[in-house]
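Section 5.1 Outputs to date
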Amino acid sequence: MANFAKIQELVEKNAETSVRLAREIWEYAELPFEEFKSAAALIEALKAEGFEIEEGIAGIPTAFTATFKNGTGKPVVGLLAEYDALWGLSQKAGCAVQEPIVDGGSGHGCGHNLLGAGCFSAAVALKDYFISENLDGTVIFFGCPAEEGAGSKQFIARAGYLDNVDFAYTWHPSTLNQVGSRCSVAIMGANFTFDGLASHAGSSPHLGRSALDAVELMNVGTNYLREHMIDEARVHYAYSDAGGTAPNVVQAHAAIKYEVRAPRVSQVQELFTRLADIAKGAALMTGTKMNYEITMAFSDYVPSRTLAPLVEECMNEAGAPAWTEEDFRFAEEVLRTYNRASMTGIQEKLLEYMEEDEMREALKNPLHTKILKYDPRDNGYESGSTDVGDIGYATPTIMFNVATECLGNVGHSWQMTSFSGSDIGMKGMLKAAEIMALATVRTMEQPELIEKAKAELAKKNGGKYTCPLPEYVQPPIGKY
């Protein structure tokens, strides 16, 4: 069995480099498909450790693989790294008051700087472990940009990069330490454009055909659709072009973005077809022309039920991050920044896995110190989506959570950006690397478990990965 003390020693050996990378990527805070500096920093560090690099994979300039092979090279693990930031979440690191570095600037409000650097730490520890223990195997670090945008993992899987990967592990910064049993929902997004005829809105409105009217009618029709879809589904929208700012001109062009979510890919595809029909109807009603371009789609994430117990065992062996009194006090300061309504919601969420007395006590020192138990019977769906789902349809996959922020913290917030650049974030990141490296070696030591996980996957995907995107859809770089 893999020696955890050895794994821990190897993670500690490269901790300084890993933390430097996490802070460097945090400072870059690059948006989806624009992560050139972040990808370059990771590539340079992996090259220095002897990994073989392939850049620009799947037609995405900021996507890459870094591979280390030892002995026969079998089995093969994929580690899924992300490093993109979010719009409008600029914030000073380790600061308990909202203080943007750049007003309106981007920030790591989902902790992907930690995610990418944590995978780097695990990959290097695995490389060193393979060499020291003369262990056969291959570790592939997948540099996966744009998870907060149109995604990249589905394009990477479609291009065949997972075909010979035996299993994949990744993690995500969180408020909790756990191997989650719940799934995430599938999603599909598209840009809908309408073109009509411009005209003077006062003197000759009858000669105009309003693209903006078409967009408005599409929204009306979609509102009626919401009453006739499953409860777990969601339909989101945002205007990308309202046709200009002159009300005395009939708008000849308008565009809107829509995203559809549902628990399964098949449900998303059926719901999207109905949405497209509504758009066609809006065009007919307004005498305009409509086109749509599918820009993104993620499959639902379903964790490997076969591998989850092993990862949980490794998490229990590694333990939760070790917090100091200073960490607890900072976490409490940040938690206090939420208003009363938010705190009510936070407490309701915490009560899903804590008794009330336990919750009130935990909120006095609001950093998670335990490992939540994996519950294989809880196979419901969370309402978020991730392109990790597509990797999970291509190879057995687990994404686990490690605490890098205060209990109850809200993701995609300035508070999260602050934690992502803090000492708390770094401690959680290094703990995640220990767990990922240990779980990888323990999995490689059990070939029968890998085969069982593959058999489970075959029942789910019918024997092969099918990308939810049509073949003609390319990464929407500069379009999403």
